[in-house]
Amino acid sequence: MTILAVGELMTENIEIISTVSSAQEASKKMRDKNVSSLLVMDGDKPVGIVTERDLVRKACVSGTGNSNIPVKDIMSTSPFIAVDSTLPVEEAANVMIQNKVRHLLVTNNKDITKIVGVITPIDFIGYLKENLNLDNKLNAKLLEFLREPREENIVQELEQEGKLQRDSQRGGQEYEDEQPRQG
User: Fold this and answer.
1) pTM here?
2) How many separate helices (H) and strands (E) can be counted in the chain?
3) Within 10 A of 149 (CB to CB), how many other CB atoms are there?
4) Which of 164, 147, 146 is nearest to 155 (CA)?
5) DSSP string, the chain
6) Burial of residue 168, with CB atoms counted within 10 A of its CB: 0-12 exposed, 13-18 middle, 19 or more buried
7) What is the mean pLDDT of residues 145-163?
């Protein structure tokens, strides 16, 4: 049995954004680049990651209606989860499960300043699709991660808090034909 490393599965094309960029700029870049996360840089130093979830939870429902919130105020920094590209994929799935994150930054030689990619559930799904019967132990771990319930359904949570109108999911009909996000 061959052990697959994170570096073999990750998405190498990682998009970046500055800490001083706005939430709106981050949203537009994610849309335009068809990604679900951006590496946040302070100069040439990686300082966090901003995801679609961060935008929804911290910018869209902030109550201020201000899309000019700086990325540094909504990015995830704690935990700032990164794994080495040589880590076995099964262990990366464990890291995601234990830390309840959907995006792992990937480094070279455990050097946090050398981000070389990102690994997400989409990468795992692609692997499973190609290798469904090859490694049952790894597939079981990946499937566990992909089906594990996340904290709560974000839409229901926001509706209960009164930050989102009930039945708001119906408003997204115009996006039904969009291609899934990468990374």
Assistant:
1) 0.66
2) 7, 6
3) 6
4) 164
5) -PPPBHHHHSB----EEETTSBHHHHHHHHHHHTBSEEEEEETTEEEEEEEHHHIIIIIITSSS--TT-BGGGTSB-TT--EEETTSBHHHHHHHHHHHT-S-EEEEETTEEEEEEEEE-HHHHHHHHHHHTTT-HHHHHHHHHHHHSPPSS-HHHHHHHTTSS-TTGGGGGGGGTTSPPPB-
6) exposed
7) 56
Query: Do the beta carbons of residue 97 and residue 145 sit within 8 Å?
Result: yes
The answer on pLDDT for 54 being more than 80 is: yes
The answer to whether 49 touches 38, Cβ cutoff 8 Å, is yes
Q: Distance between CA 99 and CA 7 in Å, rounded?
A: 20
Query: Span 9-28, mean pLDDT?
Result: 91
How big is the chain, counted in residues? Answer: 183
Would you give the DSSP letter of residue 11? B
- Structure tokens belonging to residue 69: 């919130």
Helix, strand, or coil here: 114? strand
Question: What type of residue is 137?
Answer: K
Please report, for the chain, the start and end positions of each structural domain, with discontinuous segments joined by +. 6-150
Closest CA to 119 of 153, 92, 139, 148: 92
CATH entry 3.10.580.10 includes domain 6-150: yes
